[in-house]
Structure formats: structure tokens, C-alpha cells
Write a structure and sequence with these properties.
This protein has 222 residues and is of the alpha/beta class. It has one domain. 31% of the residues lie in helices and 26% in strands. Strands 1-2-3-4-7-6-5 form a 7-stranded mixed beta sheet, sandwiched between helices. Helix 1 crosses helix 2. The model has no long low-confidence stretch (mean pLDDT 91).
Length: 222
């Protein structure tokens, strides 16, 4: 994937981190798929996935380079000097050890539903809002990174339905005088690994003026 704006900064080392993080997610998703329909909330979903990633890392059949990775689920951080229970938590963060400074790849998960308890518009608002994409724009998450990922956990309808909603929502935000997501490049379909075919990319200007690319990975949890 190469759209030009961030390519000079995103060197081969970080490109490998991106692909390996996607592979860990894809393998864990394949392993956890039978359990995902029983998940009650995002915590259950990310818990299943993080556990699956750890098992894959510890599997002797997994390529040796993955022994350099560790996985954090609900990892507390302090972007604005928060303490204790006030700290926000990263849903899934993959840490690359063996180098300094350490490198990380973060997935922020949101459920995508359309039923009597949560409509598609409500879920999309949460995905795009202050508790989702907005966290990266406001630099509460991944202030020092130029890329991270949203993980859309589909609990009703199809990937194409949600991909279409995301594409339209980012396009509307980009042209709205009340847009909050500082869209520099709108939603484009992309593919990092074949095992995760339903994915897109956007680029945003953060509040500090720096750019961040967000990948949007959709998985079926039904």
C-alpha cells in the first residue's frame, strides 16, 4: 500500500511491523472465530483475539521472527498524565521487542451492529467519534506513531455494507464545515494480508498538525 503522503516516513522496518501485526490478527481471528459469536462486548472480542495472538507467538510452528513480539490487551496509558483508573486503555497493542526505541502497532476495536439495541448509525457514530477515530486525531492514542488501526467487529449485516458506510462518512466529514476528523485522504480500499480482505485506509491531520494513517480492518463476529 502506498499513497505517497507518508511513504517517506514509513520505512521498511515499520512496514514489516504493519504486516506482522496483521498476520497475528488474521491467525488469531481464524482460531477465535468459533467463539466470537458468544462475545458480549468489545472486551470479550479483544480478549479472544489477544489470547489467540499469544498462542500463535508461542507456537513452535510460527515463524521465528514472531518471538520478538508481545501482545497487550486493555493496556493502560497516560497521554495526558492520567493516573490509576482514569487512564485510557488500548484495546490491542502489539509490541516489537529487541530494538530501541520499541515499536508498537495498535488496534482500537468497535462493534458494528444494526439491531434493536444499537442501530448502524449509532455504531458508526461511536466508531468515528471521540471514543474511536477521534482518539487518534486528539492524540490520546498513538501520539508518537504515524499509523494505527481501527478494528470493526461486525455483529450484523455484511462487510460491504459497513465499508460503504465508512467511505461515505469520511467523505462527508471531509467536505463538512463541521467536520472533526481532519481528513487529508479519504477512504480507500487496501489489502495488507490476504487473510483480511475487508480493509480500508484514511489519512488525517492530528491536532498538533502531524499526519496519521488509520487502517480500518473489518472482521465478522457472527
Amino acid at each position: 500500500m502506498s499513497h505517497g503522503i507518508l511513504t517517506a516516513e514509513w520505512d521498511q522496518y515499520l512496514a514489516t511491523l504493519r504486516e506482522d501485526a496483521h498476520l497475528l490478527l488474521a491467525w488469531a481471528y481464524a482460531d477465535a472465530r468459533p467463539n466470537l459469536p458468544t462475545a458480549r462486548d468489545e472486551y470479550d472480542i479483544t480478549g479472544f483475539l489477544a489470547e489467540g495472538m499469544e498462542r500463535r507467538i508461542n507456537n513452535p510452528l510460527t515463524p521465528e521472527r514472531f518471538s520478538l513480539y508481545s501482545v497487550h490487551n486493555e493496556r493502560p496509558i497516560s497521554p495526558q498524565a492520567e493516573h490509576g483508573k482514569d487512564r485510557p486503555k488500548l484495546d490491542i497493542q502489539i509490541e516489537r521487542c529487541g530494538v530501541r526505541p520499541k515499536r508498537y502497532y495498535t488496534f482500537e476495536a468497535k462493534r458494528l451492529r444494526d439491531d434493536e439495541r444499537a442501530t448502524a448509525s449509532n455504531c458508526l457514530a461511536k466508531y468515528m467519534g471521540d471514543e474511536g477515530v477521534g482518539r487518534f486525531i486528539a492524540e490520546r492514542y498513538e501520539r508518537d506513531s504515524i499509523e494505527a488501526a481501527m478494528l470493526g467487529c461486525i455483529q450484523s449485516r455484511s462487510p460491504e455494507f459497513w465499508l460503504g458506510l465508512l467511505e461515505r462518512a469520511f467523505a462527508e466529514d471531509a467536505v463538512s464545515e463541521h467536520g472533526k476528523l481532519n481528513v487529508v485522504e479519504g477512504f480507500r480500499r487496501c489489502s495488507i494480508v490476504d487473510e483480511l480482505p475487508d480493509e480500508g485506509s484514511t489519512i488525517h491531520r492530528r491536532n498538533s498538525g502531524s499526519l496519521i494513517r488509520l487502517l480500518h480492518v473489518l472482521i465478522l463476529c457472527v
